[in-house]
Write a structure and sequence with these properties.
5 strands; 3-stranded parallel β-sheet; 154 residues; globular; alpha/beta; 25% helix; 5 helices
């Protein structure tokens, strides 16, 4: 998360719930990089940093879950290392009428380098990333042989 971190998360949830016509961009690098690498609310469990030398015990906070819980009307995630997708999400976010909430996974090459490599490296990305597209099946994998199917709706 950026250095504002959790200080303004309540305000973001309120804006999402009220559906103001604003765009919220949350840059998430899973670390407080500007404070010399302290663990953040989005750091993974057992993250060893200067402020958590024995590993963090907190379960990572999920900003998208907060936006969904506030009934957001535009919620998306992209990555700084996928410029085509990021550009498309920024344009869609900007065009949305109401509150748009876009979380951007951002690498911190000094204090948390490679945090999102599994989602960005050519060797692992096809098997780890699922792009949600309106009206299209939830299929992914290097050979498009993986997917998610809803068996029944309760």
């Amino acid at each position: 998360m950026n250095t504002y971190g959790m200080h303004s998360i309540h305000g973001r949830a309120t804006a999402v719930a009220i559906n103001f016509d604003i765009n919220i961009l949350l840059f998430n690098n899973q670390i407080y990089g500007l404070t010399k690498g302290q663990y953040s609310p989005t750091s993974e469990e057992q993250k060893v940093t200067k402020s958590s030398p024995f590993g963090s015990i907190d379960h990572p906070f999920n900003p998208l879950a907060l936006a969904m819980g506030a009934d957001g009307s535009f919620i998306a995630r992209s990555m700084d290392r996928d410029p085509k997708h990021l550009q498309a999400m920024l344009l869609r976010s900007q065009a949305h009428k109401g509150t748009s909430f876009l979380e951007i996974y951002q690498n911190c090459n000094i204090f948390n380098d490679g945090a999102f490599e599994i989602f960005t490296e050519k060797s692992s990305k096809p098997d780890e990333v699922l792009f949600l597209e309106q009206g299209k099946p939830l299929i992914f994998g290097a050979a498009n042989n993986k997917g998610i199917k809803l068996e029944r709706f309760l």
